[in-house]
Amino acid sequence: MKTAILSVGTEILMGQIVNTNAVYLSQELNALGFDVMYHHTVGDNTARLKETMDLLFHDCDLIITTGGLGPTQDDLTKETVCSYMEDELIFDEVQMKELEEAFKRYRSPMTENNIKQAYLPSRAVKFSNPHGTAPGFALENKGKYIICLPGPPREMKEMFNLHARPYLEEKADAKIVYKLIRTMGIGESQLETQLLDLIDGQTDPTLATYAKEGESYVRVASKRETKEEATAAVEDMIKKVRDRIGEFIYSEDNEDLWTVTGRLLLEKGLTLSAAESCTGGLFAKTMTDIPGISEVFDRSLVTYSNKAKMEELGVKAETLEKYGAVSEETAREMAEGLERVSGSDICISVTGVAGPGGGTDEKPVGLSYIGLRYKGETKCKEVRTRDVGRAFNRNRTMLNMINMIYREIK
Amino acid sequence: MKTAILSVGTEILMGQIVNTNAVYLSQELNALGFDVMYHHTVGDNTARLKETMDLLFHDCDLIITTGGLGPTQDDLTKETVCSYMEDELIFDEVQMKELEEAFKRYRSPMTENNIKQAYLPSRAVKFSNPHGTAPGFALENKGKYIICLPGPPREMKEMFNLHARPYLEEKADAKIVYKLIRTMGIGESQLETQLLDLIDGQTDPTLATYAKEGESYVRVASKRETKEEATAAVEDMIKKVRDRIGEFIYSEDNEDLWTVTGRLLLEKGLTLSAAESCTGGLFAKTMTDIPGISEVFDRSLVTYSNKAKMEELGVKAETLEKYGAVSEETAREMAEGLERVSGSDICISVTGVAGPGGGTDEKPVGLSYIGLRYKGETKCKEVRTRDVGRAFNRNRTMLNMINMIYREIK
Fold this sequence. Notes:
Chain A has 410 residues and is of the alpha/beta class. Chain A is built from 14 helices and 17 strands. Helix content of chain A is 42%, strand content 26%.
C-alpha cells in the first residue's frame, strides 16, 4: 500500500524540533511492507492540511499523521481529518472515563478544553494512549485510510506498537518479516562481496547491506502469504549468511553492540572498569546507558591529563616521555594500572588523538591505542579512523573498545 | 518570501537517516525572515520530484532542495530542476578544474561519472562546495526561485553559509537580525511573566520565549530596512531583557552552557576535575567535547560502584551506610576526596538515581546531589528532575553540574 507520513506542527517548520517520528514510522512501515512515498510537514492550519491530504491521496492510499491531537485551539488534526473523511465527531463515554482517570493519576485538574479529547469520529477505530491524554484513531473512507497518532515520540511509538501495527498488519497485502543483522569489523563493500551471489540471485528473501556509523548491516526480508512462511524463509537465509560472515555478526536482532556486550557481562558476572583518555568518558557514558549495568560496571577513570594518568593509574613518566601519551605502551600501562586499583575482571584502556588539533604526521588525528587486561594477559590494538571530526573519531574509538571486549568474552 | 524545503532521497523515506537538514534550514530561513510553509521529502524519482515542485510553487516562491547532487545515476535533482526551470546544463570549465583538484586532494581517481558534476544550468548562480565534489546553485525562472544544496549535512551547512545565505539576504524584502538569549535556572512560564509587557507591547523587535531540554530561551528579532537599524533595535531590547533577568542569562549568542563554561575555565586558567556516579561519564564526555579543553580538564573519576567511591575518593563506608550513596554527605565526601587526589582548582561531584529502577519514596528516580569544592569550600545542591527517563535525568543532572560551576566562576 502506498503510504505518506504527514507531520503536523508549526514547531517543526520553525526548526524547533527534529522530526524523529517520520524516521521511526518510515522504518516500521517499510518493514511491514508499506511503500513510504512521501514525508510531508505542514503547520497548524486547516486549509493547508486539507490541501496536503488532497495531494497525498492523489498517489497514496494511506496517510499517517502525527501531531495536532492535543487539547488546545491550534490542535486541529482530528477535526480536519474527520471532516475530510466525511465523518462527524461524537462524544465517547469510555474515552471520557479514561481521561478522568489519567488526570487523577497525574494529580492535575482536568480543564474545560481537555473534554475535547473525549470526542472521536463516529466510524473511527480508537487507539488508546497509555502515556498521554490524546487518543489516536484509524478512519476509512472510500478505500482511503488515515491513521492519526499523537506528536510526542514516546506516546506515538507506544500507540503505534499497541494499536496501529496490528491494524496495519491486517491491511497489508502480504506478511513481511525482516531481520537486521549487525556486524562489526567488516566493511560494507567486503560484506557485499561475500554475499554477492545471495544478494543477486534472490527475489525472496531479499538481502541488502548498508553501512551506518562504523557498522555494516545486513537486512534480510521476506514477503509471503503467511507470517510463518516468511519467518521460515528469513531464518533459512540467515543460516546461509551466518555460514559466510558469522564471525563478524554480533546481533541478529538489531541490538546495539553495547547492549549485547552488557548482557554478556551480566550473564557471566564479569566486572568491568575503564581508563579513558581521548574518549573522555564516552565509553563509561555508553555502558552506563544500560539500565542495571551497575551490577558489573565498577568505574571509569577518565585520565585526561598526563598527571592524572600517572597519579590514578601509575603510568610511568618515562613511558609518557619516551613513547608519548598516545602509544601502545601507555595504553598497556593504563590497563595494567587500572587492574591494580580496581581489581575488575576486565580492564580496558584507551589513549588517542581525537582532534581537531594535536595530530602529527606520525600520530595523526584519529589514531588511538586500546589496551585490554583480562585473565592476567594484556592485549593492545591500534585503531585508525578516517578523520571526519572529533565526535566521529571518539565514537568510532569507543565502538572499537566495546568490540574488543565483546570478542574477548563471547 | 514563502518557502518550502524539499529533501530528495529514498534513504530518508526508508528511515535510514534523520533529516537534520530540514531542521537546520528551517532555523536559518526563519531567522532570515523567510516563511517556511512546508517540509517535503521525495525519493529519487524524476516524475514525483516535478509533481512536488508544482505543488510547492502553488503556494511558495522559493524552494530549497537538499540531496541528489552526487555523481551516480540516481542523483537527479540538478537535471530535474534544470529542465523544470526551463534551462539547460552546460559544461563549466572552472568547476571541472575544481573537481580535478578535489580528487587530487583526496588522492582518489576521478571516474567517468564524476564529470557529470562539472555541468551546471546555464543561468545558474554557482555555489562551490569546499567539503565535497557536488556544486550547488541558485536558479530563477519567472519570479520563482530554486536553490539546490548537497545532502551531506556538513557540505550543506558550509555551502548555505558561504553562498546561499548572502544570496538570500539580497532577496529578502527586509533585513532580519535576531539573537537567541539562553538562560538557566528560570522556567519558561516565569520568564514569560517577567517579560510579559515587553512581549505584548512590541511589534518590532519581537520577543518570544521557549523551552528546550531544561533551558529557557528568549528570542529577540527585528525586521528593518537596513541591517544596522535591526541590530540597534535588537541590542536595545536585549538591554531591557538583561535588566529584568540578567542573573539567569549565560549566553546572548546561542552558545551551549558547556562552551561558555569551558571558555571561562580556559580564560581564568582554572583546572577542573569531576567525580561522577549517576551521570556515568556524561559530564566528562560533554566537557571534553570542547576542543582544547585538555589544558584545564584534568580527570573525571566515574565511581559507579560504592567500592570505587571508597577506593578512588576515600568516601567512608559509614557515610555510605548511614546516609546512602545518594546523599548530600556522599556528594560532599566525593568532592573533597577528589580534591585530595587531583589537586584541581574546581572539583565537582554527583551522585543520584538515574532510573528507571532503583528509586524509593524517599529517594525517587531523578533525585541527585551535586558537590562543588572550590577555594577551600564545599557547596552541595539537591536536584530533582521530572522523571521522564534515564537519558533525560542524566542530561538534566549534568546541566545542573555545569551550571553550578558557571555560577561559581563567572
